[in-house]
Amino acid sequence: MDTPAEPAVIVADLHARRGTHPVLHGLGLRIPARQVVGLIGPSGSGKTTLMRAIVGVQVVQSGTVTVLGRPAGSAWLRRRVGYVTQDASVYDDLTVRQNLDYFRAVLGAGRSDVARVIEQTDLGASARQLTGSLSGGQRSRVSLAVALLGSPELLVLDEPTVGLDPVLRRDLWTLFHGLAAGGTSLLVSSHVMDEAARCDGLLLMRDGDILADDTPAGLLAATGTADIDAAFLRLIGDDDPDARKEPR
Questions:
Q1: Farthest CA pair distance, the chain
Q2: Long-range contacts of range 210-215, CB-CB < 8 Å, 24 or more positions apart?
């Protein structure tokens, strides 16, 4: 019988703020290994701050974040964690392939990695184009391709499907699950509730707190609802449309 894998990420009593504004209020959670976990919640709920803490680039006030068995931000993790921010983090004056060649060299990844990630992200037709000439969705795919270089053990993806058409969104979610099947752990944030159904596990966030940590099916069963939107409203006690009407 296989021994269950250790969680990819363990967060304990995490407090963080952006500027002087408290954002995370003593969070505790575990992200299982080799799964696609969705971090779902409205804009401003603290998703990006949590992801930055996991990657190790967010100053925290207290608490611990353990990633692949090491403290978040450890030098050992730099080649084992891939991170895609909401804004494309690539060079606009380089072509797609030149960007990938540059970051491959920085990471020390094999030359064949460039062709692999171009194929995975469907960037073949754009490989010779200047990155700055691409659409926002295409530039986001270049950032994802960079994050895939070196086959990281953990991928942290902040709103990776924003601005993408439905076909490409579907293809990326297929890619995410293929990566998980191959042993990669993924944390994917979104404010689009219908993407939650594509995840193995869900973390629902609001106002810096975790409202639920469950599978999509478990969340629907626990709330007695038919979709994630309704489940979220049930959890925040805002599921009665009559109660939300303006008084006459």
A1: 67
A2: 210/27, 210/28, 210/29, 211/41, 211/235, 211/236, 213/29, 213/30
**pLDDT per residue as tens digits for the range 57-105:** 999 999 999 999 999 999 999 999 999 998 878 999 999 999 999 999 9
Count of alpha carbons within 13 Å of 188, Cβ hemisphere only?
29
Distance CA 19, CA 187 (A): 25
pLDDT digits (tens, 9 = 90+) for 45-55: 999 999 999 99
- Residue 229 makes CB contacts below 8 A (sequence gap 6+) with 193, 194
Torsion angle of the four alpha carbons 83, 231, 65, 14, in this order, in degrees rounded to the nearest 10 = 130
Q: Provide the CA 166 distance to its chain's centre, in angstroms.
A: 18
Q: How far apart are CA 230 and CA 240, in angstroms?
A: 10
CA-to-CA distance for 116 and 223, rounded, in angstroms?
A: 42
Half-sphere CA count of 4, side-chain side, radius 13 A: 6
Give the closest residue to 69 by CA, choosing from 150, 153, 179.
153
Q: pTM of the full predicted structure?
A: 0.89
Residue ranges of the alpha helices (H) in 5-93?
A: 47-55
* Residue of 111, 106, 112, 115 lying closest to 82 (CA atoms): 106
Per DSSP bridges, beta strands 21-31 and 209-214 are unpaired
